[in-house]
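Researcher: Can you fold this with iron/sulfur cluster in place?
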Amino acid sequence: MAKISEPNPDFTKMVIEAGPGSDTLMLCYQCGTCTASCPSGRLTAFRTRQLIRKAQLGLKEEIMPTEELWLCTTCYTCVERCPREVQITDILFVLRNMAVKEGYMAEAHKKIGENMLRIGATVPFGEEMKKLRVKMGLPENPPTTVGNKKAMDDFRKVMEECGFDKLMKGGKS
Ligand code: SF4
Ligand code: SF4
């Protein structure tokens, strides 16, 4: 038998208070404009309106592990069109932050986070790019975390200070 989640008002309160923007959660009257506007929802099973409703009801167990939470591209189209000015994208950020603290993160986001910790950039700097830079008369590596050890060390310190490294290992920050 399918498990039915119980509404959890404490979770709803936590979302509303986590802000900024999440204090608009209860303004949603479920018109569906966000779902109809969402470019991600056109290609996936992600339904923005549904996720907002689950957050209103405090259905934590349904929201935290879901892949849908990570399908938003943060384009803000829904926010621009919402007749109630619900800060939908900010609410999604709040939900994602909560999910990460509970140990949930989509694989693609995990890879990007791991790259950040390893090389200080979201995308690895490949051999082809290095060759192209040299061909253009530039140093092989750019003077960022990729080519500057001090910048990388400083960046790692910031990641440790804010607890990002622990979050990436599935722990609490
Ligand atoms: S567009 Fe706004 S009011 Fe309509 S369902 Fe989406 S969040 Fe709710
Ligand atoms: S911000 Fe996210 S939820 Fe809103 S329309 Fe863009 S992809 Fe969809």
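Model: Folded with iron/sulfur cluster in place. Residues 28-34, 49, 52, 82-84, 86, 88 surround iron/sulfur cluster (ligand 1) (CB under 6 Å).
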